[in-house]
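pasting for ref
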Amino acid sequence: MDSDGSFGVEMAGLGIRTTGFGIEMGGFVIGMTGLDIGIAGFGADMGGFGIKAT
């Protein structure tokens, strides 16, 4: 499951999105070095404000 709001592997490959957090919208989420940081609250998009590198 991914778009359901559960744990799922992001299309980036190494990006794990947590419950409703860390939704990739642009391209790669934070972590162009290889993996995405998907800690609770951190990810691609968090409440309209996200740290991501497109």
